[in-house]
Amino acid sequence: MLNPFLNGILGRYKPLASYQPIAKRTQTGHIESSGFLETYIPFARWEDQKLKLLIGSEYWQRLDSVTTVDSRGNNLEILNALDIPSSTYFGFSNVLPIAVAQNAKYNCIAYDGFDDYFYQTTPRAIRIGECVLPSHFHGTSISSPQPLDQLDNTKSHSGLYSVKLEPRLNWQYTFLLVPASGTRGTKEGRTGNRTFEVNRNDFTKIFEPQVGKYVVSAWVRMEDLTLSNFSACSLRIGPHNFSPSGRSLMVGNK
After folding, report:
1. Do 142 and 213 touch, CB atoms closer than 8 A?
2. Which residue of 41, 65, 84, 232 is surrounded by the most CB atoms within 10 Å?
3. Which of 78-87, 171-180, 240-249 has the highest mean pLDDT?
4. Dihedral over alpha carbons 120, 125, 128, 131 (to 10 degrees)
């Protein structure tokens, strides 16, 4: 059982999109009497005992449209007027933005700086049997008996923590190449008898990349600064292995 009001599925009203009128403006040669709309079509009108939106006309141009919002009300994915997405990934219990991407859907971006694994806000009480939603992109140790034992605060790149890789200790991210369809039924069609039927598309998307080309980057640090190739560690994505190479860019990091 899941309370849709406590989890931000129902009861949070936010602007869905913004619109701008496309019309000529008056030019009189005097600033005090110029710039007025020559024509005006209302955004909506009352018709057949209900409010009818007129946003489908050429007069009203949609600007930004919100497609994904988390339970805290943060905008995670927005489409511009050309339907090009931009996404923001929030960390630290969905409080602070830690990654922003242009021309990318929210379920296709990921970032991990290892700094918010120990960050806790005051959570609400989770009842026995209640499902806990997975994080967007958090890794775990597949070798150590304690998953967070590999997080180390003595060495880091730009934050407070890093993952310490030792012989036979690996760090793994697991995700699926099966994104949700994104289709949600109407609220009226799924409410009845004081219950609400929740489906997968009601939840915030996690990292489920669509098949395509991606840019992947990672920082690796070795204690031996004389090495020119960090062949002792590699990044594996499916059947493919990638090893860092080249000169150290800053204090042993590549």
Report:
1. no
2. 65
3. 78-87
4. -60
